[in-house]
Write a structure and sequence with these properties.
Strand 12 and strand 13 form a beta hairpin. By secondary structure, the protein is mostly beta strands. It is 4% helix and 37% strand. It starts with a strand and ends with a strand. 39% of the residues are buried.
Length: 235
């Protein structure tokens, strides 16, 4: 996923809080910021996650680009299957009364137009504040089974590292998971999942799972138990 986070505060530059790895295209943001995420055209799916709190309920109609054409879809995970919301009409709008909150920490698919519709790529700009202050922490629940997640703090990096039990310190979703657990990231080109699995004794990851800012991912906590991932916004 092509994602870029841009500074809105001069104070943010010194904070150095966002990226868990040194990167040339992801910069620090303290309190407020925005992230540009490309939604693939021609009916392709992009797996995203809202990295900021918009202060207005994080409703789908507020946080997703109004230029998404009709037949575009938003798919959320209910624990067993996908719930689907589709744009229709002229001009293209989501159904009247749509009330679908997409807060930080939840992953969801966006389908931009219909297959071979000629719909171009669209850059969606997520705008808002980080959900915790500098030095603050947030906990993400990881129940048994499949959950569609996103990092509630706009970090980029490794959820899991091949040959290790966890991932990067700031974004580590892989550490608390037991053997046979999986992390599924989205392959934009192949429109399929890249699957990293934990196995062995001690339980180590067979491959690396990485995400960018604003990118969602599935976790399959296959054997349990339910666990939590705690992330801290580090100065």
């Amino acid at each position: 996923m092509r994602t870029k986070t841009t500074i809105l505060s001069a104070v943010a530059l010194a904070a150095g809080v966002l990226s868990s790895q040194a990167q040339s295209n992801v910069y620090s943001v303290n309190i407020v910021g925005y992230a540009n995420t490309v939604l693939q055209g021609n009916g392709k799916f992009t797996l995203v996650a809202n990295p900021f709190n918009d202060g207005n309920g994080n409703q789908v109609t507020n946080i997703l680009n109004a230029l998404l054409p009709k037949q575009s879809q938003v798919l959320t995970w209910n624990g067993a299957t996908f719930n689907l919301l589709q744009k229709g009409g002229t001009p293209a709008t989501f159904p009247a009364g749509t009330d679908l909150p997409l807060p930080p920490g939840i992953g969801f698919f966006v389908r931009n137009g219909a297959v071979a519709s000629g719909a171009p790529d669209i850059t969606n700009t997520f705008v808002g504040s980080i959900v915790v202050p500098v030095g603050g922490s947030i906990t993400s629940a990881v129940p048994v089974g499949f959950t569609l997640q996103g990092s509630p703090i706009p970090y980029a990096g490794n959820l899991a590292i091949a040959g290790q039990g966890g991932g990067d310190t700031n974004i580590n979703f892989g550490g608390p998971l037991d053997k046979q657990s999986q992390i599924l990231t989205w392959n934009l080109v192949g429109q399929t999942y890249n699957i990293a699995q934990k196995g062995g004794t001690p339980a180590l990851w067979g491959s690396t799972a990485s995400i960018g800012v604003g990118e969602g991912f599935f976790i399959n906590n296959k054997l349990g138990p339910a666990t939590n991932v705690v992330q801290t916004l580090n100065p």
